[in-house]
Write a structure and sequence with these properties.
single chain; mainly alpha
Amino acid sequence: MSAVYKDDQEDWLTVCLKYLLFVFNFLFWVGGAAVLGVGIWTLVEKSDYLSLLASSTFAVSAYILILAGGLVVVTGFLGCCAVIREQRSCLSTYFFCLLLIFLIELIAGVLAYVYYQRLSEELKQHLNQTMTENYAQPGKEAITLAVDRLQQDFKCCGSNNSHDWMVSVYVSSKQAEGRVVPDSCCKTITPYCGKRDHPSNIYKVEGGCITKLEQFLADHLLVIGAVGIGVACLQLAGAVLTACFIYLLYKEEEEDFDTL
């Protein structure tokens, strides 16, 4: 009687784990969509600003999330097929895929957190130099567009303040045609509006563009880190469930072999 009860109990556990893995796969796909969405959102929304950063860590974190999100979609399908067919070889492949994605997303989350810690210092060291030395220079069109968009989107002028432009290569050149700041500093952009730097004409923001860009990037990095680490934990839970399911299938196969 006890042997029959034990078999029934194991069958019940197998069925429960099977349905739990189906639920997990649904959550897995939702998490994968979230990861993919955050990665694309990070690169698409105000992606021009990436050219103003000294390091590529921010972009790399986003690309890693996109890679992980794509793998999640494929792996989720593999997981469903493996659970339906109850094949240990497919489930083992699924298990290792989960661990791989776990590591990838963990790396993205850690990269985002590490970069978040040194973001402020990097911007202070490099943003002013990038803006004053490269704005409106030959071959630096991407930076010029990024600076113009930065100043208009965040309603700021200069990295620290509008006076930063006084020592810039652009303002010192004939190309400026008498401007003391780029036209993108103006509240209402008109030709040559940058010739007048009065507060009624240009943006005067405390902390300049550095403060605004730092806050924007910090918010994105927090989302990248939270999503990456959060979904990685979900993957770890799925790996544990899959390992338990593989173990139960192994025991069933072993018992079936013993009865022959």
